[in-house]
Task: inverse folding
């Protein structure tokens, strides 16, 4: 890892901040007061879904080994339980990567230098127990103030270019557009518009190359004590990476150093439209991950309530 | 089907009520006004999770063919993406029945007499397209006022007996305890305490026999224009059934006739405690199903916000 | 379907040949005498495997919906069953399309005009029971004389061109090279060399376009009373098809009309080398499908014993 | 591990016998000569299948975590590929434990004292690569002489009692009944009759308690240089174990020390009848495992050819 990485890491590291036994990192910043205050700001009651539909024709192209799109099949169709003419039931199952579609990265999704968040040994993730520390089920109910940082709209474009690195300056501009000061316990949703490529049917273009967050953004979130961050790309951070050969540095900084969960493949298009129309970029966000015990990630069906 | 079933069905039938093309039934009753009004009542900001942890040691015992507990495995553990010493990722997948744990029944989960909700032909569910009508992804974001109808507490017991049929009179008593008038667009959560058996490690006792809702309850919900109902049992309704040989009549009435989604395996224990302490049984409920395209059911991680 | 198809179909149709209740078609042609006679010809004892390794990096590219490559994960690694220091076990699971790798098409894999082999209604395949007739488990143990028809070698090339249609004349030439008269109960293995493309890492080129069998070949097999046929391509027959718009006519003729199972993705490279060296193209073939009840296809690990 | 275990282990250990890089152990003992000689003994051409049907109602009861019965669903039923009236295909997938039904234990299935067969470190099994050494795909084509050791018939009973430990003396008696000297490269099939319990519908009784092989049997196989062993039980060895607290000692001796693969859940009932009628207990056995790369076990559809 280059020196730059280590310097940033030192400035944003949260290990021990909530005690040696903490497993949820910046989710500690979501307080009942934040939730209460945000609920009070709900003025329209409009609910906007941010999840992609779960289907085999999902965003995965096979590039990430094992992260398979939802394979959803029926185990029974109109089975008459007590004989002909009686009530009939249908049932279904799925096989899918927990990070295949709209998801949260659990804190254990990434390690570096043999360590997970809060200094836990990377080897604590095993086949048998999955993530012994910071499993995604530990996150509990994620409900807080969400703020849309519409970098795309702030730049006056429909979609960021494939090579666009989202910088702290971009976030500043989006915050200004939002007219909101991002603060303690907020969940920041960063819009790049990249997901339009998938929605238009071009999975390959969606995957790579992709705009995404700069290695300089974790400090921006750290300074504001943000609880979590999500965006509308497959890789979250710029890909190919800013610094050649340094893959997923933002993941390492956010998840391992700060203990801050990241969301990916969130569809922010309708939300962007709604916020622009309402001239309001903060809302109540309900985004509880499916509580897979020991999961290193989890599907989520987030909803913004304006 | 006995005459009693058909008489009730006639009184509560909602086919055509929201047009011939409607696929979501009583979810139409959730209005922005309901959400807005409920958000304003959030006074503590406390968030209570209602989902069971997702794990192989889940509630399924094999009795329902194909409805398998989550089988959650790792596809990679600390894989160093760009060579030794670089950032490492872990990844996981799952195979599970969509109704294996805490879930919503989609409207297409049940048919009777060859019909689904709103008169759609049962044959519209196929392996290839799954549920063509009323797939669970059509439900969209489910956020509304939740009301806990704590039948157990209202009867002054810790847990209903295995053979207890939850009647409209039980619901009246629970409504009185709640001090709330259940109304249009509400989501009613009915507590029986049965899930304690699973939480205590006895899956078999949880499964069967089980207390549950009476064939007389759909009318109670219909009269109040409730949007959806969930409880803390595997079968939702009393099992074995009230009328010998008439399996799942409540499913048929709720899902097919009324077009009202049902939730099962919801853990209402912590919520019961919290409501009793706060002397408050209504709250903001965020319970959006994972949007499986054509799903006849879906996992959900519901949260009550008080 | 064009007239040509129907004319061929009439000439090769085997419906009723082994009775109205038959479910295995030309496998009836394998007699104990064939097996006994072939066993007597084993002169070297050499065993040649014909299956591709089962792995996620398999031949499927996503073109066939749901036919997923083997996703093979561990459910336990070195789990010490009775405490530290005791014997430890590892365990694994797989999710895969039954026809994802080296496989047999079951007779129920294809229908046309609403019919399966022996006139069974196509609707007899359901989600609940899978193939009620001619499920792949009905095939039983498939062991017979195998004959390699090395069309590639007979033409003096390393691999057939992508657009090469394997004709009856090609089969004649390969039979002559083999020095064997293909006969009753034999299993014919047709080599095109196409699988070299996959083995060399180019899945896309392997998939499409592909050489394969002509619509004229079923008559060749029918005339000789062959029991089954397999080759080294993904689609078995020429693709794109010989007659524009007529997809999978050979499947329809072989499986539905003749009741003859087809194998695909068989690796015939080592076998080709061995046969050429031994100047011997007939052998004992053990190729029993995994007996999935109601399966429309099944993985197989075939072995040629020379 | 008790002293007795270590003493036996010392006497039967095969590490290094076929070189330090060997990964297949006693399969080395199957020579072309053995196969050739056995093929010459095929006198009837009768083929007897030894695999259980693969279905959800399989032998697994949930006792072994993650080892799930085959969950077999359709991904398409009669899908008309090129539009209405054209050829239609059906397709299916499965999720299953590789050792769920009739299977081979790969050599990497068990470790003890941190070691696998041939001294390989147990840690060489990983989620990412699965078994780096002795993966089941390394076994290659398993075809050899099979010998039925019908312990049940030799004792004059229909089925061994649940507590019956199969001893070397039992094997001697069965060998005498067989009229065959078990020798180098043979695959021994040991019949207990226990599988009758599953076939009769009582999975629980099949599982446990179960008759099975004694800790004294590995020496018997070692003395004869047997290539592999299989039987008709879930656990292979007596369960509960002979020596209290010493779980799976026979697995540890056979797989780790000798490098000898074990088969379980083989249905030997029809074979027993056939051998008794033919007064012949040796045959050609084709039992090639599905070649899962890095698999610690694999399904197999074995066939005895008499």
Result:
């Amino acid at each position: 890892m280059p020196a730059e990485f280590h310097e940033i890491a030192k400035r944003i590291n949260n290990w021990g901040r909530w005690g040696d036994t903490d497993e949820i990192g910046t989710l500690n910043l979501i307080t009942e007061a934040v939730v209460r205050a945000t609920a009070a700001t709900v003025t329209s009651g409009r609910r906007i879904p941010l999840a992609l539909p779960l289907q085999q024709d999902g965003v995965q192209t096979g590039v990430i080994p094992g992260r398979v799109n939802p394979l959803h099949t029926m185990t029974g169709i109109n089975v008459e339980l007590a004989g002909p003419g009686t009530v009939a039931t249908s049932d279904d199952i799925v096989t899918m990567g927990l990070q295949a579609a709209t998801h949260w990265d659990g804190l254990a999704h990434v390690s570096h230098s043999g360590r997970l968040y809060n200094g836990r040994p990377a080897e604590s993730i095993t086949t048998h127990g999955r993530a012994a520390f910071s499993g995604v089920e530990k996150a509990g109910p994620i409900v807080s103030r969400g703020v849309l940082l519409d970098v795309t709209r702030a730049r006056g474009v429909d979609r960021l270019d494939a090579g666009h690195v989202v910088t702290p300056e971009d976030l500043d501009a989006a915050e200004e557009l939002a007219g909101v000061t991002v603060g303690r316990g907020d969940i920041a949703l960063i819009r790049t518009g990249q997901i339009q490529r998938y929605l238009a049917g071009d999975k390959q273009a969606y995957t790579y190359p992709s705009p995404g967050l700069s290695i300089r953004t974790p400090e921006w979130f750290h300074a504001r004590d943000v609880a979590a961050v999500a965006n509308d790309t497959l890789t979250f951070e710029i890909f190919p990476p800013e610094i050649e050969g340094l893959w997923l540095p933002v993941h390492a900084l956010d998840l391992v150093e700060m203990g801050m969960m990241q969301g990916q493949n969130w569809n922010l298009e309708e939300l962007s439209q709604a916020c622009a129309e309402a001239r309001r970029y903060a809302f109540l966000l309900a985004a509880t991950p499916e509580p897979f015990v020991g999961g290193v990630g989890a599907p989520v069906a987030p909803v913004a309530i304006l």
Summary: The longest strand of chain A covers residues 71-80. Chain A touches chain D at residues 71, 73-75, 93, 95, 127 (CB under 8 Å). The mean pLDDT of chain A is 96. The CA atoms of residues 60 and 196 of chain A lie 15 Å apart.
